[in-house]
Every structure is written in C-alpha cells, then in structure tokens.
Amino acid sequence: MSGEFHKIRRLPPYVFEQVNRRKAELRAQGADIIDLGMGNPDMPAPPHVIAKLAETAAKPNVHGYSASRGIPGLRRALVDYYDRRFGVKLDKNREVVVTLGSKEGFANLAQAITAPGDVILAPDPSYPLHHFGFIMAGASIRAIPAPTPEAYLSGISKAIRYSVPPPTAMVLCYPSNPTADVCDLEFYKDAVALAKKHDLYILSDLAYNEIYFEEPTPSILQVNGAKDIAVETTTMSKTYSMAGWRIGFAAGNERLIGALARVKSYLDYGAFTPIQVAACAALDGPQDCVDEFRATYKSRRDVLIESFGRAGWDVPTPEASMFAWAEIPPQCGDMRSLEFALKLMNEAEVAVAPGAGFGEHGDRHVRIALVENEQRIRQAARNIKRFLAKVAEEGQSEPLQRTGS
User: Fold this and answer.
1) Whether the predicted pLDDT of 245 surpasses 60
2) Does residue 128 share a domain with residue 31?
3) Residue 381: enclosing H or E segment and its boundaries?
4) CATH number of the domain encompassing residue 83
5) Domain of 348, in residue numbers
6) Contact status, residue 342 vs residue 403, Cβ threshold 8 Å
7) In the Cβ-directed half-sphere of 207, how many Cα atoms lie within 13 Å?
8) Does residue 1 or residue 38 have the better pLDDT?
C-alpha cells in the first residue's frame, strides 16, 4: 500500500515541529536556548496538591480503571468552582465531564458532534486544534479573521450568509491563545444572541481564565440562556501548573456534554484516580497558589514588555494568558514568522512560536510564552538587542539572507 492516509493528508506539516527540531539540534551542540516558544508552565504544582496525589496513590485500591466521565467528587468540585467564581449553577451528573486536559476534551467534542461536510466557524489566528480537531472529524473550517473579538463576531455574521451548508458551530477562545485578547460579558451576550438567531452551537475554550492581570475574565455560561447552546472547556494545566497531569473539564449544554461523554466512554477510562483526587484538592483547597502563579506571570510580563522594548522590539502588553502576541520587528523587513523564528533561534538563542502555526492571519506575528524566569527574560532581551542591531546593519549593506524553509 502507498500514499498518505486520508486524515493525514488533511493535516499540514506541523510548523512548530520545525522550530522544535532546530531547537533540539542547537541544544545538542551546546547552545543555551531561552525557550519562550511552547506554553509549558515551568513552576511546580502546589505542594498540597502533590501531597494529595502521593497520599492517594499509596492506597492499594486506586490503581484500577477510573471513571471516564470523572469521579463524582471532582465533578462536584468543578460545580462548586463555577458557582463561586461565576455564579453559574451546573448539574454534576448532566452538565459536567472530566477530560484528559482541555485539548483532549475539545478534540473528542469535535468527534462527537461533527458530521462529514459540516461547516465550523473558527477564529484566525487561533490554537491549531480549534481548526484541526474538526478537520480530523471530517468538517470544513471557515476561518474568520480575528484581530479583535468584535471583528471576529462581525466576521461571523458575514460568513453565515455565504456558508453552504449553513454552519453548525462557532469556536470562541478568550483569553485568546495566541493573541491574549480578552472579552467582556457583553461580548458573550452578543455571541449567544447571534448563535441562537442562526441555530449555532458555541464551543468556548476557557483554558486561561485564571491568568488575568486586570479584571477577572467571564464565562459564557454566565449569560442567560447560554446553556441552551454552549459548552465550555477548561483545564488545570495553567491555573494550577498541572500541564503534565492531563486533567480538564467540559461544562454546559446537556446535549453536547452527553455526546462528549458517550464518545469518551468508548475511548478512555478516565484519568488516573489519584490525579482526579488531587485535582479535587486543588479546586476545593486554598487558592493562594493561583494568586501567586498569576502574580508571577504578571511580573514576567512586565519585565518582558520593558526589556524587549529597550531592545528595540515593541511588544503589546497582554491583559491575560501566559503569552504575548507580537508583530515581527520592523527591522526584519518582510520576513514571515517561521523564517524569523528560526533566525532568532540560530542567531540570538531565543525560541518563540511562529504565528503561521496559528493560521494564515498570524504569519506576521510570533507568540512569546512567559515560561522563563525574569533573569532569563532579560537575557533574551539582551540577545535580541544584538540580533536586531545585526539585522539592521545587514539590511543597510545587503539584502537579508533567507534562513527559513
């Protein structure tokens, strides 16, 4: 047999893999790469959560299969969280599912509700799974430019008129990955009204809801009637620095949650029970750790904005998330994001995520993750300052040499 499998043909080469491969090569050669690329938290999970994991794992009766939908205690803990954080009431048996991280939850939700040929509306730029989770399920993606939340919603209104067949769902992600844009409750009210008018489901990714630096971010489920059409995914990964634990949630519309739960029942037996018990300790326990994580990210953000600005790269200040979304410096001319990311890593030993990996409209930007300490961020800025000075000098003497592929 020869040729690519059908679903593999629908997936382009993973842009980030080219950056990761070069990063590994340089590190093997002894380079000290300051990695601001992947959104991989560098801080450990809270001590009381780790202690609960160890305590539970020591019990002899917790090492069998767990519950695909999530243990009752963890579903109750999420219900309590939504109540105290957003004032939203949920039914732990009908409106909540525990997932293996929000990424798995979103992908399985796409499998559960998508038929071949369905049209899904998704922002561009956006987290790759917001597009490719549905593409792998056989749907067609209508990518809507999303320079701001309001522009995205306006673009959806226009796209609906020209989509054949009519779209079945739209994706929201605020705080946004990668742009760090935030929205308010009025935006969600408008989105719900638009979706109800056109018989659309809303799939909201709320992975960064607790990493905010100004006002607390809302949930779409706070809107009256949102549960008629909306489901929201979230995760422990960023809020509690538990990325490798792979634990998250989906909450909202009973029909969507039921479809997700049924698909999951065929695919997994749920996360390891001690991890779920430890997640209960995180949600139900003291939240000082969340405040500390948030303060750390804010301090890193401020150092990055200030030091990169002095280096000659003006980076917009994000209001939330663990990312900054920055246009390629003007000194670099017409470079695209992959070329810039590779050149920056080769010559400045700083890794960033190419914006092209998040969609066509991201290709003049890069995403910068706040996952190194302040000293390392300042070192990155010094390296970048030298890099930009060299690029400017090269630009005055001869055309820039292309380094990307």
Assistant:
1) yes
2) no
3) helix 374-397
4) 3.40.640.10
5) 6-44+289-395
6) yes
7) 29
8) 38
| Counted domains in the chain | 2
pLDDT above 90 covers a percentage of the chain that reads 89
E strands, 100-247, in order: 119-124, 140-145, 169-173, 201-205, 230-235
Name residue 101's amino acid: G
Q: Could you tell me if 45 and 240 are in contact, meaning their C-beta atoms sit under 8 angstroms apart?
A: yes
- Render pLDDT for 85-121 as a digit per residue (tens, 0 to 9): 999 999 999 999 999 999 999 999 999 999 999 999 9
The residue-averaged pLDDT of 136-155 equals 95
**pLDDT band for position 341 (cuts 50, 70, 90):** very high
Q: Is 365 exposed, middle or buried (0-12, 13-18, 19+ CB in 10 A)?
A: buried
> Which segments of 11-124 does DSSP mark as H helices, in order?
15-28, 47-57, 72-86, 101-113
- pLDDT > 50? residue 402: no
CATH number at residue 337: 3.90.1150.10
Indicate the residue among 284, 301, 334 that finishes a domain.
Answer: 284
Instruction: Answer yes or no: is 16 within a domain.
Output: yes
C-alpha 292/C-alpha 66 separation (Å) is: 32
Same domain, 222 and 274: yes
